Design the sequence.
């Protein structure tokens, strides 16, 4: 399945040629037939000798309808630039050629038609006039995408030269790889109509993925949902429409008024319309004047068209023939992605100014002008290696799953895979989660430069916490998360990474800086020493928790002593020094090994303490699986 498009000056015989090739005249409208002039896009199709289906989009040559021409020319595999032999290269020949060049239409051929009108044809087909026209054409196409295009001499009227035209066309198309299926179909709508009994039908050249009957679809930019009721290619019913084919989609749930030319049909949530984009722009050298920052222009991409304000990011003014980075603010949202080719025209008087490639379809914001960093990052998006492009996509998304970064980069799967491996190996990209990082994986990753700044910021928050609460073990995870305003998934991934890198210490519900130790100042140390003396005087009947908390020792110091394991809490009311606790446990163990059982009263007498302490200790030992209670007795747990 291939699609080609015509182009060329008005009346040069484009539609007649399509009719001669396909058997159907593409001009359908009454007005078109009366005026012998194409206004709307026309369509035809044929089967090539090798059996491949070929769709043909026929465009108008009249300068007033160049918007229609642009809406049909996107997505084609090759262009036929049609030039009438009796007139040669004319203004719209040049303008269409410039457009094909700006859109980088990948392959093409030039059809020198109406050769029957050339008077001096010799019996062998030679003609001094045609040779002259051809050499003029060669001059015009030099340096453009059409530079090496073959020139075919035909007469659509007499049907001469058509066979060799078809065979050259076939061999050009055979050299082109089939359109890749990226599973992100988009159909830029170039026609909308209704068919009685069916409802709304839209047509376009499908790209980036396939559509199937029954699919839920979205009409963008509006976002209205519908379902595919039927699909046709070249008037034949299909269950699946493949990328690169002329496709008619019958959509249920969408009325004729709800969809128009320039809209895009896609699967839900795969494309986000944009109102701002960054692009490389070339002003045609034939342009009648320079352009300035803030100029209003008409923006054409795929089948859509909208008014835009042009911002020159690195220069005040752009002269004919020059290139620059621009940011476009669009009056209406359009669907476009990185890598799309676009055209800018001056609204009035109508003139094609130039065009180029969309470099970023969702830039981070309204760029400051003359900002070196922004211009450099745009350069790497435009000229960089796949790794540069992938890294730019990662930077733009900050922290994101790998598959989203790959989608944004618009790289071919094989290139994306190699770029990903390279970036992970040289640590330009950092995986925040564990797993196998393939291009379809959902592992969170982050660009190294963002990681460094993000990591410093987090460590600073933790450090500030340590400085405010030096006697605390660390900051509660929840508190850190809300301070950083991160989603649970991103937060957990980052903290996990920081712990693995030993930048943070893990204390389950708390985290601390790796080097953080609880340390008392001299005043605090004096209070600690005094407290420890009180414990030492009555090791088995020590001061009560309430008294300590609210007394001069204070909560912070008490908690810190528990943190550093100087004290051991056995119940909300009872705390022992750790050494005394260990001593009691070993004594009880020895008793149990000798006697098998012990009672609360025996514990009380053993340490010459009160029932309150003995009970708290034994319940603590029960709860920790050291002892088991049976009535009044306790035994060692098994
Ligand atoms: N003698 C002769 N006349 C031709 C030939 N091809 C087209 N014509 C005539 O040229 C006129 C214009 O042809 P179209 O095919 O409508 O031209 P077009 O390029 O489609 O014009 P637009 O769509 O308006 O840009 C018509 O009168 C055709 O009959 C040809 O090979 N020989
Ligand atoms: Mg025509």
Sequence:
């Amino acid at each position: 399945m291939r699609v080609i498009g015509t182009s060329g000056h008005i009346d040069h015989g484009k539609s007649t040629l399509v009719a001669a090739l396909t058997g159907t005249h593409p001009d359908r409208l009454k007005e078109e037939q009366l005026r012998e002039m194409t206004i709307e896009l026309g369509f035809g199709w044929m089967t090539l000798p090798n059996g491949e289906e070929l769709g043909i989009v026929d465009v108008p040559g009249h300068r007033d309808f160049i918007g229609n021409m642009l809406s049909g020319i996107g997505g084609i595999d090759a262009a036929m630039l049609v030039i009438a032999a009796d007139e040669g290269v004319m203004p719209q020949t040049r303008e269409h050629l410039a457009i094909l060049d700006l859109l980088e239409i990948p392959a093409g051929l030039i059809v020198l038609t109406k050769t029957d009108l050339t008077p001096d044809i010799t019996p062998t087909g030679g003609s001094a006039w045609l040779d002259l026209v051809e050499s003029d054409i060669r001059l015009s196409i030099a340096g453009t995408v059409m530079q090496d295009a073959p020139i075919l001499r035909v007469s659509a009227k007499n049907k001469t030269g058509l066979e060799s035209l078809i065979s050259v066309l076939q061999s050009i198309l055979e050299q082109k790889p089939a359109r890749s299926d990226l599973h992100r179909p988009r159909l830029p709508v170039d026609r909308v109509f209704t068919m009685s009994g069916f409802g709304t039908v839209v047509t376009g050249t499908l790209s980036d993925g396939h559509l199937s009957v029954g699919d839920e679809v979205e009409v963008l930019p509006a976002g209205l949902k519908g379902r595919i009721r039927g699909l046709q290619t070249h008037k034949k019913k299909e269950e699946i429409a493949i990328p690169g084919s002329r496709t008619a989609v019958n959509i249920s749930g969408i009325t004729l008024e709800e969809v128009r030319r320039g809209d895009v049909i896609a699967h839900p949530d795969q494309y986000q319309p944009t109102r701002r984009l960054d692009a490389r722009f070339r002003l045609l050298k034939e342009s009648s004047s320079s352009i300035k920052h803030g100029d209003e222009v008409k923006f054409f991409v795929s089948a859509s068209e909208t008014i835009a304000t042009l911002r020159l990011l690195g220069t005040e003014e752009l002269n004919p023939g020059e290139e620059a980075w621009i940011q476009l603010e669009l009056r209406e949202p359009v669907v476009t992605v990185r890598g799309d080719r676009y055209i800018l025209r001056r609204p009035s008087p109508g003139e094609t100014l130039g065009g180029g490639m969309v470099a970023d379809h969702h830039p981070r914001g309204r760029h400051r002008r003359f900002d070196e960093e922004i211009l450099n990052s745009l350069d790497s998006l435009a000229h960089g290696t796949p790794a540069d492009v992938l890294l730019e996509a990662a930077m733009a998304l900050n922290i994101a799953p790998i598959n989203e970064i790959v989608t944004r980069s618009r790289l071919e799967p094989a290139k994306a895979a190699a770029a990903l491996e390279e970036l992970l190996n040289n640590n330009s990209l950092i995986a925040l989660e564990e797993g196998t990082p393939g291009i379809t994986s959902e592992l969170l990753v982050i660009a190294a430069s963002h990681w460094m700044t993000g990591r410093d910021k987090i460590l600073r928050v933790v450090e500030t916490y340590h400085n405010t609460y030096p006697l605390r073990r660390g900051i509660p995870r929840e508190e850190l998360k809300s301070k950083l305003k991160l989603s649970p998934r991103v937060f957990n991934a980052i903290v996990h990474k920081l712990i693995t890198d030993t930048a943070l210490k893990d204390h389950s519900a708390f985290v601390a800086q790796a080097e953080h130790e609880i340390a008392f100042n001299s005043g605090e140390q004096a209070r600690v020493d005094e407290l420890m003396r009180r414990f030492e005087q009555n090791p088995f009947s020590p001061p009560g928790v309430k008294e300590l908390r609210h007394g001069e020792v204070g909560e912070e110091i008490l908690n810190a002593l528990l943190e550093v394991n100087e004290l051991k809490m056995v119940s909300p009311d009872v705390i022992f020094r750790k050494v005394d606790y260990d001593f009691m446990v070993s004594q009880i163990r020895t008793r149990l090994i000798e006697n098998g059982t012990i009672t609360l009263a025996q514990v009380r007498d053993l340490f010459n303490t009160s029932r309150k302490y003995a009970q708290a200790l034994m319940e603590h030992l029960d709860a920790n699986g050291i002892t088991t209670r049976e009535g009044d007795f306790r035994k060692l747990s098994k």
